[in-house]
Give the backbone structure.
Amino acid sequence: MLRKRRFPVLVLTLLLCDSGISAQSLPVYEVAHVTSTITVDGKLNEKAWADAQPGGAFVNNRDGSRSELQTEARILYDQRFIYFAFRVVDQNVWATMKRRDEHLWLEEVVEVFLQPDSSIPNYIELEVNPLGTMLDIYLIDRRKPLHYESWNSEHLRWAVQVDGTVDGKDGDRGWSCEIALPFEDIATATHLPPQPGDRWRMNLYRVEQKPKVAELAWSPTLQDDFHILPRLGEIVFTDRQVPKP
């Protein structure tokens, strides 16, 4: 949930031309149905995750250009949860915030924005840092959240695993994150659990601070702001089952 800053239209237009990114190009992810148990421990070692569709490279959010920072995400669902998995390559893992609902976006974090019905401006934002701290927000409109401490998902699950140390020093290899968001919190969805063919809007982000600042996105908003709802990509729930036999 980054602070909004102005970004001139002329500059944005030039960046679009230079990067070859169309203002209409939005990614689509097909979500498979997981038939085995997902243990939310951050390790991502279940076969179902290996069989899930890779989400594609994260790019620089402001202009859609390629990033040297490797980030991968995958998504699954069952009758109770939608699951998100992140793998982050990072030689310098850093975070300090340990209290739920702190302003995690000021440090290093991965984020999920989920809007089940594009005709209703409600959406959910989830952020997790390498220390395993969670920020969960329910927004009734763009940048209009319920007070952070007034809404916490009761049955939300999440975990991280760090290959290194969370101290802001070089020598790390990265970290992974796993999130299970219960469907009971997704009030605006047409069907719960979702049915094959249902389409929701979604975006995924990564904020990096050390050794230098980077703001990455699955679907770049092409502005210095993550809360651009028309730039959310799309997920399509399918009847494809994983893990494969």
User: Anything to note?
Assistant: Confidence is low (pLDDT under 50) at residues 1-22. Residues 9-19 form the longest helix (11 residues).
